[in-house]
Amino acid sequence: MEYTKQRNTNAMRLPTSGNGHAFYYYIKPTVRNCKCTFPDGSIYWQRVVPIEKYRVFKSEPDKLYLDEQCTISAGITRKEKIQQAKQLG
Tell me: the pLDDT tens digits for 63-79? Predict the structure, then answer.
């Protein structure tokens, strides 16, 4: 039991006390937009947005893009694309 109290499981050596500010800023540059592949083989991208106030990452709800930088809108929502895939079987 003593060993588990002394062992350091923090591989990145980031301060873990508090509310996780250091971990958020460490991981923020590595977070990228999310690739969505649908059953019909089409590939779209969803934008991942960092929310500084709460230090979390969220994707834009129901918005799809054609490129990885999320600059060209697909003109279809995620829900519509899922419905199309269900109709195709």
Answer: 999 999 999 999 999 99
The β-bridge partners of 44 are 36
In single-letter form, the type of residue at position 71 comes to T
Cα-Cα-Cα-Cα torsion 19, 24, 26, 29, nearest 10 degrees, comes to -170
> Residue 28's pLDDT is what?
85
Q: How many Å apart are CA 85 and CA 81, to the nearest integer?
A: 6
How many CB atoms within 10 Å of residue 57?
Answer: 14
> One-letter amino acid identity for 18?
G
By the 8 A CB rule, do 48 and 31 touch?
yes
What are the residue ranges spanned by the domains of the chain? Answer: 17-88
Q: What is the pLDDT of residue 63?
A: 94
